[in-house]
Each structure stands twice: as structure tokens, then as C-alpha cells.
């Protein structure tokens, strides 16, 4: 009996190691040594013109990974492509990835994948927003499929905790990963369309969502007036939209979550425990720290269903298949 358990352990270990060893840090050290620097300087130059681009790039990578794996499928243009699904309607930052790719094709043609550029740009975006940095395992190849009908995997701001949990679990991500990754909402903004229904006519009762802090409700109502103005946006972390910090979690604890799905993370005991830990993030204290956990969770997310070796292709242009 003992030997069967041992055998199972070895098989599982080999499976885990083989998945992780598909990507390696410094994959382009010999084939394109400037690759990471080119991505970094490109992201930085756009960031210096408009710091909100950081949030856009981080979200772009997440939306790429949840559909067909992290394979650049979200970058393909075309009316039936993934990028045109309703779930992807607010995505921004495509021009940054295209720009980095153009420079890399001039330096080392057919070497650096668009999927890797996305993963590197997400890391650089976080670092530029005063967040943590990490070594990004690279070696992803670009996919050959991009279909808007597959974007239903993506979470919706109306999803309950059970649905959020199930969508993340389907990608190998647990409760802690869910809370940690959604912590990306410490930067960026949302269209008022994803917020207004909570403010004026929640579940058609004519009231507001009772989980919203009362003073915050007035603030949100002034940011998103009840006139359906499509140009209005609101920060996902109303305390510091461009800083990668823990105020997003502190806000959830106080009923100041902007998206319904974010606020639900505080109400569930398992996810709420993680929110509580991150909200109390004090440098030097032991326990869960958002700035330690975020890089680990990102490396996990960036490894979802990646294509490596001879799978897929290295696109010449990120917005179209070869
Ligand atoms: C349950 C999971 C999630 C839901 C329901 C969700 C939903 C949303 C929604 C509705 C927006 C506003 C979009 C718009 O107005 O166009 C948004 C923005 C954003 N999301 Fe998420 N998200 C989730 C998880 C994540 C994850 C895992 C990441 C990254 C690791 C992420 C990163 C972002 C960022 C950075 C923005 C701001 C984008 C910008 O300013 O352009 N989100 N999210």
C-alpha cells in the first residue's frame, strides 16, 4: 500500500515539474538578449505619457490567459476574434504590444512571441505603478485560434463568489489566487455601466446595493450619475487609482468596493480571510503580504495552458496569424 502512495507522489511530482519546466526565465538570453529591455522601455515610454496604460496592460494579459491560455489570442483583430467579444469591449493597450513587437521583429525576427510580450508588459506595468516585480518565465508561443464565442470563460462583475471561484478553479487557481489576482484592481478604472445598476435600481428594487457603505454610495452616485453617460469612468480603488498598494483591500473591508464581484470577496469567509490579511499589510509583520503573493499568483496565471516547443507559432504581427 505504501509503495502505491509513493508511486502516486512521484507521478504527481513529475507532472508538476514538467508543466513548470515548459517556461524558463531568461528564455531569450541568447536568441534575443534585448527582448525584455525593449518591452520594458516601450511600456515605460507609453506610461510616461499616460500612467493609466499600466492597468490596461495588466488586464490585457489576464484576458489573454483566461481564453485559450496565455497565447496572444486576445491580440488578433477581426470581427469574430476574441478581442471583439462583449467581455473584452473595454480592453486597451494593444498599440503598446504592437509597438514592442515591431521593434523586436527588427532586432530578432521570428523569435519573441506576442504572448511573452504580454506577460512581460504586465510585469513592467505593475512595477512602474510602484508595485512588486518578478522574473517572468518565458518561452510561450502564439496561438492559431481566436474566437469571440470562447470569451464566456471570463468572469463577470455580476458573478457570485461561487461562480468566481469556479471560473478560477477551472484555470487551476484557488481562493487565495482569486483574491490576490483581483487585487490587480488596485489600479485602473471601470466604465460606470458596471457600477450604476448597484447605485439606483439594484435587483430592480429601486434601491441601492445594501453592501455599499452609505457615505461611499453618495460619492459613487456623483461619479456615476443616473443618466447613463457612457463617457463616465470610476477608479476601481477610489483611494489611489494609479498606485499598486493595499488600499483596494482596505476599501473592501469598509464596503467601498466599486464592482459587485469585488465586494463579494469580503463577504465570503474564505476569500474574506485573505482580504483581511492583505488589508492589514504592515511591512515587517509575518503573515500574508500582497506584495509577496501577487508575483507568485501572476506567475501561476501566466502559465495557464501555455503553448511551448513546436506548438503554435511566433507571429510576425501580433494582430494577425502568420
Ligand atoms: C472575478 C474576476 C474579475 C472580474 C469580474 C473583473 C472585472 C473587471 C471589470 C468589469 C473591469 C472594468 C472594465 C471596463 O470598464 O472596461 C475591470 C478592469 C480591470 N481589471 Fe478586472 N476583473 C476580474 C479579475 C481581474 C484580474 C485577475 C486582473 C489581473 C490580474 C484584472 C485586472 C483589471 C485591471 C487592471 C482593470 C482596469 C483596466 C483599465 O483601467 O483599463 N481583473 N475588471
Automatic annotation (TrEMBL):
- Keyword Isomerase: yes or no? no
Is Oxidoreductase one of the keywords UniProt gives this record? yes
Record-annotated residues binding Ca(2+) 2? 186, 237, 245
Which annotated residues bind heme b? 185
- Endpoints of the signal sequence: 1-21
- Could you tell me what the cofactor note in this record states? Binds 1 heme b (iron(II)-protoporphyrin IX) group per subunit.
Locate the region Disordered.
Answer: 137-156
What are the GO MF terms of this UniProt record? Answer: heme binding; lactoperoxidase activity; metal ion binding
Question: What are the required cofactors?
Answer: heme b; Ca(2+)
List localization entries.
Secreted
Plant heme peroxidase family profile domain sequence ranges: 22-322
Q: Where does substrate bind?
A: 155
Q: Which reaction does it catalyse?
A: 2 a phenolic donor + H2O2 = 2 a phenolic radical donor + 2 H2O
GO CC list? extracellular region
| Main subcellular location of this protein, as a coarse class | secreted
* Domain of life according to the entry: Eukaryota
State the family named in the UniProt similarity comment for this chain: Belongs to the peroxidase family. Ascorbate peroxidase subfamily. Belongs to the peroxidase family. Classical plant (class III) peroxidase subfamily.
Q: What does this protein do?
A: Removal of H(2)O(2), oxidation of toxic reductants, biosynthesis and degradation of lignin, suberization, auxin catabolism, response to environmental stresses such as wounding, pathogen attack and oxidative stress. These functions might be dependent on each isozyme/isoform in each plant tissue.
By its UniProt entry, which PANTHER family does this protein fall under?
A: PEROXIDASE 25-RELATED (PTHR31235)
The entry's protein name is Peroxidase
Amino acid at each position: 500500500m505504501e509503495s502505491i502512495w509513493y508511486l502516486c507522489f512521484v507521478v504527481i511530482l513529475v507532472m508538476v515539474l514538467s508543466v513548470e519546466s515548459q517556461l524558463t526565465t531568461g528564455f531569450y538570453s541568447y536568441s534575443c538578449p534585448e527582448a525584455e529591455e525593449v518591452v520594458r522601455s516601450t511600456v515605460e515610454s507609453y506610461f510616461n505619457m499616460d500612467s493609466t496604460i499600466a492597468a490596461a496592460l495588466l488586464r490585457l494579459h489576464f484576458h489573454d490567459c483566461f481564453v485559450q491560455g496565455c497565447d496572444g489570442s486576445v491580440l488578433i483583430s477581426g470581427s469574430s476574434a476574441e478581442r471583439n467579444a462583449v467581455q473584452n469591449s473595454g480592453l486597451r493597450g494593444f498599440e503598446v504590444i504592437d509597438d514592442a513587437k515591431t521593434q523586436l521583429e527588427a532586432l530578432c525576427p521570428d523569435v519573441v512571441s506576442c504572448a511573452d510580450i504580454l506577460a512581460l508588459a504586465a510585469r513592467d506595468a505593475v512595477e512602474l505603478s510602484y508595485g512588486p516585480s518578478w522574473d517572468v518565465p518565458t518561452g510561450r508561443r502564439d496561438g492559431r485560434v481566436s474566437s469571440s464565442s470562447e470569451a464566456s470563460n471570463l468572469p463577470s462583475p455580476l458573478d457570485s463568489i461561487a461562480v468566481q471561484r469556479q471560473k478560477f478553479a477551472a484555470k487551476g487557481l484557488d481562493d487565495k489566487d482569486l483574491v490576490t489576482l483581483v487585487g490587480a484592481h488596485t489600479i485602473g478604472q471601470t466604465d460606470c455601466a458596471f457600477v450604476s445598476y448597484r447605485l439606483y435600481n439594484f435587483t430592480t428594487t429601486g434601491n441601492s446595493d445594501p453592501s455599499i457603505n452609505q457615505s461611499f454610495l453618495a460619492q459613487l452616485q456623483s461619479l456615476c450619475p443616473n443618466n447613463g453617460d457612457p463617457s463616465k469612468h470610476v477608479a476601481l480603488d477610489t483611494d489611489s487609482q494609479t498606485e499598486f498598494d493595499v488600499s483596494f483591500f482596505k476599501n473592501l473591508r469598509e464596503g467601498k468596493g466599486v464592482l459587485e464581484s469585488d465586494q463579494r470577496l469580503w463577504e465570503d469567509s474564505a476569500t474574506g480571510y485573505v482580504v483581511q490579511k492583505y488589508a492589514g499589510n504592515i511591512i515587517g509583520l509575518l503573515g500574508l503580504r500582497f506584495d509577496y503573493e501577487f508575483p507568485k499568483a501572476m506567475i501561476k496565471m501566466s502559465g495557464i495552458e501555455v503553448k511551448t516547443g513546436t506548438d503554435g507559432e511566433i507571429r510576425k504581427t501580433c494582430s494577425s496569424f502568420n
